[in-house]
């Protein structure tokens, strides 16, 4: 072999002498371990810089079922505080953009020309929550009385034609009750 890669100088050429000469990269014994440590460090830095929560299974190991309870609100508290802190920057920027959109509406639709369009940006941080637990708590405070009418809960569930659905439920209930009565009369 002639030439070498000493002192980390670039531009060196490795020349091998003979037909059976070969060269291989030298791999440090702990290269994969240091690479995984570097990956973990960079991932940790990303979460810290963005104030986001690492909810990977590895990160939540040992915390139990933290996201399924009201503790999720505490887990996401730092990102929510950061959002509220940054609202002083984003709300004025959103207002400027909204004024452009309002001007466009007034230009394109003559009905809006002389009217003052009122719009206000609202920033709501996302939170993973358990609505069932929340409603159960409200019902217990309310003396276990219903919070919503059947119609309101059906609308909340996304049913388009609530009145039609209620009629179908009533018909099904009548059918079920008549079958139960027939079964009771045949067994007696």
From TrEMBL:
InterPro entries (UniProt xref): Portal_protein_SPP1_Gp6-like
Pfam families per UniProt: SPP1_portal
Protein name, entry field: Phage portal protein
Native organism: Chryseobacterium arthrosphaerae
Domain of life: Bacteria
């Amino acid at each position: 072999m002639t030439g070498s890669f000493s002192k980390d100088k670039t531009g060196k050429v490795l020349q091998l002498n003979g037909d059976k000469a070969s060269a291989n990269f030298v791999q440090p014994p702990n290269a994969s371990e240091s690479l995984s440590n570097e990956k973990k460090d960079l991932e940790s830095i990303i979460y810290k810089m963005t104030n986001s929560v690492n909810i990977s299974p590895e990160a939540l190991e040992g915390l139990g079922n933290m996201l399924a309870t009201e503790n999720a609100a505490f887990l996401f508290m730092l990102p929510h505080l950061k959002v509220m802190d940054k609202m002083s920057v984003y709300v004025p920027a959103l207002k400027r953009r909204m004024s452009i959109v309002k001007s466009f509406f007034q230009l394109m639709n003559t009905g809006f020309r002389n009217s003052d369009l009122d719009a206000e940006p609202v920033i709501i941080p996302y939170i993973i929550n358990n609505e069932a637990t929340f409603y159960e708590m409200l019902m217990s405070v309310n003396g276990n009385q219903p919070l919503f009418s059947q119609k309101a809960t059906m609308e909340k569930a996304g049913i388009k034609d609530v009145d039609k659905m209620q009629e179908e439920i009533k018909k099904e209930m009548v059918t079920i009750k008549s079958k139960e009565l027939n079964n009771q009369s045949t067994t007696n």
